[in-house]
Design brief:
Blueprint: E1 3-5, H1 10-19, H2 38-43, E2 46-54, H3 61-79, E3 85-87, E4 102-109, H4 118-127, E5 129-133, H5 156-167, E6 171-173, H6 179-188, E7 192-194, H7 211-219, E8 223-226, H8 242-254, E9 261-263, H9 283-290, H10 296-309
Parallel strand pairs: 1-2, 2-4, 3-4, 4-5, 5-6, 6-7, 7-8, 8-9
Helix pairs in contact: 1-3
GO molecular function, one term: metallodipeptidase activity
InterPro entries: Metal_Hydrolase, Pept_M19
Protein name: Dipeptidase
Length: about 325
């Protein structure tokens, strides 16, 4: 069964390997150290993979734009140069993928890269960014993230960014936002989405969504993509099973979200793994497990069809 995965950090990991001469040079095509290398994506039947641009918050402000450009360059030189890969530049391109092609989408995790410069944001759109999360865990000029103790919502600038996302049919990601910023975003975004978040009730980590947030997303007909990092699945534990992960899927279904669920692995951004789901090549293990408990059409929805049904019109 084909897969659409809304989040991985392979670009960041490849950049770190290039900047550190003591590290192995990670290659997208076949580096086993990458959870989402090309061979793993093929074996796992991943049809569309989203690749995040991510800048660590401790990078000096004056260097952040350059770091973002380096990751975009890796997207173009390491990923797009493979003949099996097709760059998804507009949403309808996903529907045009041929057999054997893998679509790739560029995303931005945290607005720190462009600071307060909307010209840079517009350039990111032109380079292919189709999903934008306003924050990582820290606060920035757009909003507070979940790790900012102040817990404030959107700034005036953040509201401008969402307006530009709306105008360009770009998804606005709520996964790392503070609770207040989440509600502000849900009010303003035409295309809200949670690219990699789980259920707070089952695992009280601040990165997970509360029931009220999940219900609000479902009412907005927005997608919620479950994430595979064990600390977001089992509270304060570094291990998880497929059954543990599926509990989060079942909980969202019980809240009415069976048609709102997708996958956002966070591969290459996580340091521990669900057993039998250690990289993209193992995706069909999850599919086989889900088919024990859900109808095939429901599992196809989780895997790819729900996202297809929620594509913005552009």
């Amino acid at each position: 069964m084909k897969i659409i995965d809304l989040h991985c950090d392979a670009l960041f990991r490849m950049q770190e390997s290039r900047r550190n001469t003591l590290m192995e040079d990670l290659r997208f095509r076949d580096s086993n150290a990458l959870n989402t290398n090309l061979q793993y994506l093929k074996k796992g039947r991943v049809k569309v993979q989203f690749f995040a641009i991510f800048i660590m918050p401790n990078v000096p402000v004056e260097e952040k734009w350059q770091r973002a450009l380096e990751q975009i360059d890796l997207f173009y030189t390491e990923i797009l140069l493979n003949p099996e890969i097709k760059h998804i530049k507009k949403w309808q391109d996903i529907l045009q993928l041929n057999e054997g092609e893998i679509g790739v989408v560029l995303t931005l995790e945290g607005a720190d890269a462009f600071g307060n410069d909307l010209a840079k944001l517009r350039m990111l759109y032109r380079l292919g960014v189709l999903l934008l999360g306003l924050t990582w865990n820290n606060a920035n000029l757009c909003a507070d993230g979940v790790g900012e103790i102040r817990g404030a919502g959107l700034t005036t600038f953040g509201k401008e960014v969402i307006a530009l996302n709306n105008a360009n049919h770009v998804l606005t990601d709520v996964s790392h936002l503070s609770v207040k910023a989440f509600w502000d975003t849900l009010e303003l975004a035409d295309y809200p989405i949670a690219s990699h978040s789980n259920v707070f009730t089952l695992c009280p980590h601040p990165r997970n969504l509360h029931d009220e947030q999940i219900i609000a997303m479902i009412k907005r007909n927005a997608m919620i993509h479950v994430v595979f990092w064990p600390p977001f699945i089992n509270h304060e534990k570094a291990h998880a099973t497929l059954d543990d992960l599926v509990r989060h899927i079942e909980y969202i279904c019980e809240l009415g979200g069976v048609k709102n669920i997708g996958f956002g692995s966070d591969f290459d951004g996580i340091s521990s793994f669900v057993t039998d789901l250690e990289d993209a090549s193992k995706y069909q293990n999850l599919i086989s497990y889900l088919l024990k408990y859900y109808r095939e059409d429901e599992v196809k929805g989780f895997a790819y069809q729900n996202f297809i049904h929620h594509l913005p019109r552009n």
